[in-house]
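Checklist before submission:
- one chain only
- standard amino acids only
- sequence pasted in full

Submission:
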Amino acid sequence: MSTGRREKFATQVDAEILSSVRSLARAEGRQLQALVDEALADLIDKRKQARPRPHVMSACRASHENFGPLCEKLAE
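Returned file contents:
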């Protein structure tokens, strides 16, 4: 995912969170920027994984079409 090209941006962060991240960076001997990169990449990865894959949704729909009436009867 990384292009190697860097771009500056400005944002605001909760003071306690920023303090904790700075402490973590110092403890690990890393730059704050590296932790921000890692956190954003992790967020993107988590969000991608949270979406059902198309073939899974297709199988779910097909199963519901085939077995929906049976499930309704079993639920009664």
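Reviewer check: The chain has a mean pLDDT of 91.
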